[in-house]
Every structure is written in C-alpha cells, then in structure tokens.
C-alpha cells in the first residue's frame, strides 16, 4: 500500500459526466464506484491531501465524502491517523454475507410483488451492459454493474430502508471479494441475473428466491483467505479523473 503519495499540480473542481450534486456527492460517487469496481484495495490509506489534489476540492469536502462512506461501513475513520478503506476480517465477511442473504431474500420477494415493467426493462438493460463489459474485457465495469443491478433491484422492491441497507452491503461485499476472491475470476452473474428477472416477471416468488440464493452461493463459493487484488495507489485508481482535468 502506498502510504505517501506524490503531490499533483492543482486540479480543477471535481466533475464527471453522469455525476451530479454537491462536490462531496461527486467525490463520494467516484470513491463508491472505485470500491464497486474493486479498484481500491482494502486497507488503502485515503489521504485527505492527496484526494483533495486529485479532485480539486477542499479537505472539508473530502471529509464529508469519507464520513458518508464510513457510515456505510466501507471506510474506517481512525482518530489522528486518517481514513482507510475497510479490510473486513473473515468473521466480518461471514456476517456481511449472512445479512446480505436475508436482505436479498426480502428484496426478491418484494420485487415480485412491486416491480414495474419499466423497472424490469431497466434491469434487463443493466444485464446487457454487464455482459458487454465482461465481453470486451472491462472487468471493473462488469463488477460495478453487477453490484448496481442489486441496488436497482432493491429500488424495484419499493422498501426504502432495504435500499439503504443494501447499498452498504453491496459495497462491503465488493471489498470482501477484492480481499478474498480465489484465482478463478470467471463471471456468469449476468446469466444468473437474467434468470432472476424472468422469475420475478413471471410472479414466481419461490423460484426467484431460489435463484437469488443460488447466486449468493456462487459468489460465496469463490472466496478464500489469500487473494488480494485492486490497488493502493490513489493516483492510479483515479487517473481518469486526473486526465479529465487536463
């Protein structure tokens, strides 16, 4: 992990096509996306100074974004030592997956009851985009879209507390996968997602829940305690932001 980062020239204010809101919203979205894409390694030091230079915002803005991420359990704020990307222990990983199974079951059952045709169409488009990303070799985008599929499914379920809880669980799951996934990096999530949408659309709650639990088994089955992927270099992770300011 790179604890000390080389200074950059002052960059323009943080902005990116497709992202809107306050400055801390934009910074939060970039870091959240980097976690979903497994580009930020667990344990990475999140230097306020370096992030401020990368995104061209004040440290106060950075602190607000990091505080939101800490609330979701994916960043650890250490008194007098700064923030780091969370590094879930084996026990914490098991707890997250246990909670995620319960939440996914409830979301799936509610989606069968509440998902609109428009929402199902959006989910199908997300699956197509996910498949395209893996096909062209953009694994990071594929992983992010896979996580966003589950967030969009939570929206289709129509239960606000579950949406908030799911957002935290999906991002924590991404960290767990980055930390513990085995060397087998094959992905068939888009096929499983398609089957799930079909079951939800047909109104078969039992089948939909069965498919969701199988999907979670597939994710869980690829984990071990040894692998470590992603990067600890903030400038490398957010190089696309830096390039966009030049």
Proportion of strand residues: under 5%
- Roughly what percent helix? 55-70%
The CATH class designation of the largest domain is Mainly Alpha
Q: What is the alpha-carbon Rg in Å?
A: 18 Å
Describe the global form.
Answer: globular
**Widest beta sheet: strand line-up:** 1-3-2
> Mean of the pLDDT scores?
84
**How many runs of DSSP E, i.e. beta strands?**
3
Sketch the topology as an H/E string, one letter per element: HEHHEEHHHHHHHH
- Poorly predicted spans: 1-18, 225-229
Architecture of the largest domain, CATH level 2?
A: Up-down Bundle
Q: How many H/I helices?
A: 11
Secondary-structure class: mainly alpha
Structure characterization notes:
By secondary structure, the protein is mostly helical. The protein folds into two domains: 23-86 and 229-245, Winged helix-like DNA-binding domain superfamily/Winged helix DNA-binding domain (Arc Repressor Mutant, subunit A, Orthogonal Bundle); 90-220, Up-down Bundle (Four Helix Bundle (Hemerythrin (Met), subunit A)), CATH 1.20.120. The protein contains eleven helices and three strands, in the order αβααββαααααααα. It has helices at 23-36, 48-55, 59-71, 90-114, 117-135, 139-157, 160-180, 189-202, 205-220, 234-237, 239-245, and strands spanning 45-46, 75-78, 82-85. A three-stranded antiparallel beta sheet has the order 1-3-2. A hairpin with a 3-residue loop joins strand 2 (75-78) and strand 3 (82-85). Helix 1 crosses helix 3 and helix 8 runs antiparallel to helix 9 (205-220). The two termini are 27 Å apart.
């Amino acid at each position: 992990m790179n604890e000390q980062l080389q200074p950059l020239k002052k960059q323009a204010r943080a902005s990116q096509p497709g992202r809107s809101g306050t400055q801390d919203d934009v910074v939060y979205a970039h870091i959240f996306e980097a976690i979903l894409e497994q580009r930020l390694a667990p344990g990475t030091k999140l230097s306020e100074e370096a992030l401020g230079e990368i995104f061209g915002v004040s440290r106060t803005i950075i602190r607000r974004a990091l505080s939101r991420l800490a609330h979701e359990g994916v960043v650890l704020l250490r008194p007098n030592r700064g923030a780091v990307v969370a590094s879930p222990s084996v026990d914490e990983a098991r707890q997250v997956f246990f909670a995620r199974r319960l939440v996914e079951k409830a979301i799936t059952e509610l989606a069968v009851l509440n998902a609109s045709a428009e929402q199902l169409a959006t989910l199908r488009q997300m699956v197509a985009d996910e498949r395209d990303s893996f096909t062209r070799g953009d694994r990071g985008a594929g992983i992010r879209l896979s996580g966003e599929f589950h967030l969009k499914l939570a929206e289709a379920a129509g239960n606000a507390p579950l949406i908030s809880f799911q957002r935290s669980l999906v991002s924590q799951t991404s960290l767990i996968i980055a930390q513990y996934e085995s060397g087998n990096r094959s992905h068939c999530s888009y096929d499983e997602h398609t089957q799930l949408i079909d079951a939800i659309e047909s109104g078969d709650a039992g089948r939909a829940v069965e498919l969701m639990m199988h999907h979670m088994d597939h994710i869980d089955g690829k984990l071990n305690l040894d692998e470590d992927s992603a990067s600890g270099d903030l400038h490398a992770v957010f190089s696309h932001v830096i390039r966009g300011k030049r």
